[in-house]
């Protein structure tokens, strides 16, 4: 059962990161839209845009945006924190100690006989 929840938490984590990326793209589009008129009249990038994006956007891509796009799974600590937040949000009394112990205790694999 705990494994099923862990998979769901991993998916929620990925969905939140992707949503954050969409928000960033949306905000970036709004900035371009509001500065489109001055940008089209100038040969050089406006100072406001240079401060935010630099002369070439590629080397200055928001590191948080890049990190959110990575497919790295969340750490055990992040999974536990998210599960605790979900439990609190829905008013579920949940003690995570047994799951924490299970997650952080290396499983002993018996050698085949």
From TrEMBL:
Protein family: Belongs to the IST1 family.
Membrane-spanning ranges: none
GO BP: any one term: protein transport
Protein name, entry field: Uncharacterized protein
InterPro entries assigned: Ist1 (IPR005061), IST1-like (IPR042277)
Signal peptide as annotated in the record: none
Species this protein is from: Artemisia annua
Superkingdom in the source lineage: Eukaryota
């Amino acid at each position: 059962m705990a494994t099923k929840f862990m998979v769901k938490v991993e998916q929620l984590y990925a969905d939140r990161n992707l949503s954050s990326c969409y928000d960033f793209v949306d905000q970036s589009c709004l900035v371009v839209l509001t500065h489109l008129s001055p940008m089209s009249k100038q040969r050089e990038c406006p100072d406001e845009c240079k401060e935010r994006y630099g002369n070439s956007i590629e080397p200055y891509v928001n590191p948080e945006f890049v990190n959110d796009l990575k497919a790295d799974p969340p750490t055990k600590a992040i999974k536990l924190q998210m599960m605790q937040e979900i439990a609190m949000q829905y008013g579920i009394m949940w003690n995570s100690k047994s799951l924490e112990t299970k997650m952080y205790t290396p499983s002993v694999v018996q050698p085949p006989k």
